[in-house]
Write a structure and sequence with these properties.
By secondary structure, this protein is mostly helical. About 75% of the residues lie in helices and about 0% in strands. The protein has a two-stranded antiparallel ribbon with strand order 1-2. A hairpin with a 2-residue loop joins strand 1 and strand 2. Helix 3 packs across helix 13, helix 4 packs antiparallel against helix 6 and helix 4 packs parallel to helix 7.
């Protein structure tokens, strides 16, 4: 199994690397040389590139590509971990209301932040949006987990209904804040609602790397624990799994990932639903395989979606949240139909 996993990971890593290189040269801007020559100059002697080409490649596209890779990987492994925790293929950050909670707290910061930002330390002030998104995500996830879990088992109906209720409540409050917002605040809120990677910068890439990479490193080690928990929490404890520790780690890291991603890219739905579903069709519910593979599959999916969003109708962009929803909604319907047949 380990050799197979290594082979799959190597293959996906190569695909992701080639795709990232390819995406750097796709877009509205026309390079003076062919793609092959520009790529060669970028690798061997980038000083021969014009200042405009350097800016497009290294200040616009490369940070955006890295952001897509990090966010896609983070959302995919977050959705996979949540599905293992809840023992339910319908669990994902956006469907159970976690994303909506993070967006709500981000909206509160955007519209009402001027009333309390001045009271905060300067260091906290610059990262208040990420902090508030994280708080909204962890409060929502904790609430959903508590209300849907009874004696170690998750009630599917309560899980989905609580997610719907939280999303509706968060949406209504966000709508109220939108009504109260100024023109500039309204533009920012629209960005959070639809999702976009257009604001990617090297600073955001560094922050995302510091949050996402350690979180992924921890979550990918939970495969055996989640496999054991599929049998039941008591059985997992008999096998030596520290169930409560695993739960807290997944909840906290999942909230941290969702909160940070929402703060930088807005709402990007269904990535945490699509990837685990596809991998589960191939590898069943073996989380030792699914967790690490979801990292690369999520990165590839979001990188492709972002490239399509910025090249389909140039010079405009289609919000990436719209594309992922178009892809994810039919898959979600398919999951529901399969789940219905299994009853």
């Amino acid at each position: 199994m380990k050799s197979n996993l290594s082979s799959y990971l190597l293959l996906l890593c190569v695909i992701l690397f080639i795709l990232a290189l390819f995406c750097m040269f796709i877009g509205v801007y026309d390079f003076s040389n062919s793609i092959e020559n520009t790529l060669w100059m970028t690798i061997t002697d980038h000083t021969s590139l014009s200042s405009a080409e350097k800016f497009v490649l290294f200040e616009l596209r490369l940070p955006r590509i890295l952001t897509a890779i990090l966010v896609g990987a983070a959302l995919a492994i977050c959705g996979t971990s949540l599905q293992g925790l809840f023992k339910n293929p319908l669990a994902s950050p956006d469907l159970i209301g976690v994303t909506a909670g993070a967006v709500l707290f981000a909206a509160i910061t955007i519209v009402l932040g001027s009333y309390f930002k001045d009271w905060l330390p300067q260091m906290v002030r610059y990262s208040i949006l990420s902090i508030m998104s994280f708080i909204g995500a962890i409060l929502t996830m904790s609430f959903v987990y508590k209300i849907s879990n009874k004696q170690g088992k998750t009630n599917i109906a309560v899980l989905l209904l609580s997610g719907v209720a939280i999303s509706a409540l968060s949406g209504s409050i966000t709508g109220l804040l939108t009504y109260m917002s100024t023109d500039e605040q309204l533009r920012n809120l629209t960005f959070w609602t639809l999702g976009s990677l257009a604001g990617a910068t090297w600073t955001k890439v560094i922050i995302l790397t510091c949050v996402v990479i350690p979180s992924i490193a921890v979550l990918t080690t939970k495969g055996k624990a989640l496999n054991a928990m599929m049998l039941g929490e008591k059985e997992a404890q008999h096998l030596g799994i520290k169930v409560e520790v695993v739960k807290k780690q997944i909840i906290i890291l999942g909230a941290l990932i969702v909160g940070t991603c929402v703060a930088f890219t807005g709402t990007i739905g269904f990535v945490g639903l699509i990837i685990p579903y596809i991998l589960r069709l191939i590898f069943q519910s073996n989380y030792v395989m699914i967790l690490p593979l979801s990292v690369f599959c999520g990165a590839i999916l979001l990188l492709l979606a972002d490239t399509i969003s910025r090249t389909l109708v140039p010079p405009s962009e289609i919000p990436i949240g719209i594309l992922t929803s178009i892809i994810g909604a039919p898959i979600f319907i398919t999951i529901l139909i399969r789940f219905k047949k299994s009853l």
